[in-house]
Structure formats: C-alpha cells, structure tokens
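Collaborator request, handled under Task 6.
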Amino acid sequence: MGLNVESRRDIVAYRTERAFIALEQAKLNIQINCLEVTANRLYYAAYYAVSALLIAHEIPVHKHEGCIQQFGLHFVQKGIFSREAGRFFNNLFQMRLTGDYGDRFDLTEGDVIPKMQPTEDFVIKVTQLAKQKVGI
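Structure tokens returned to the collaborator:
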C-alpha cells in the first residue's frame, strides 16, 4: 500500500467519519420510508468502517467484493470477528445491490429496519479496531 503511518491515520479518521455520516443518513432516510436509500447508506457505513480497518492494517483492496473478501480472510477467519459478522457485511452488500439495481425485487421494511442497530454496532466495533491500530 505504501502509506506512512500519518497518511494511514488520516485516511482511517476520514473513513471513520464517513461511516458515521452514512449511518446518520440511513436514520434520516428510514424516517421518510426511503428503503433503497437506507439500504445503500447502511452498506456504505459498514463499507467505510471495514475499508478503514483494512487501511489501518495495510491490506489493499480495489473493489467492494475485495473489501468483503479481505475482511473475511484477515478478520473473520482469524476469529477477530464472527462468521455472522462476515455474513452480515456481505448481506448488507447484497441488500444494497438489490436496492440500487434490482429491477424485479423491492426492499421491504422487514428487510431494512432490522439491520439498523446491528449495522451501527458493527460500525462501532470495526472503527474502534481501526482507530486503535493507528493510534487515534
């Protein structure tokens, strides 16, 4: 990856901030029943958090699928996060794809609302580890 500690720290701080902004956007959009936008923002909250963790650990990724795979390889398989957490992150990605691109399937409140609090919990745990790694 080639980033020095200060650069990684700055990026981790930025991605962490983006994760919490995306969570707030999800909360606002669920209030007006914008389920697809909420699903998108929930996924991006988790994505920004995981990408911060990967950057903190100098693990390069270039695509969303790579982010999911590297999270599984380096943090789920090593027992830092549970298999359920890995599946949850992947499920958020699939829900986001459905909301953004699904032509034949609409998301329901039952698909999205139950993921609100678990996403926030996931983001908090992931960002804490990322910040700890770079000394924030």
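The cover message to the collaborator said: "The two ends are 20 Å apart (CA to CA). The helical segments are 5-31, 35-56, 64-76, 83-101, 109-112, 116-134. Please let us know whether this matches your experimental observations."
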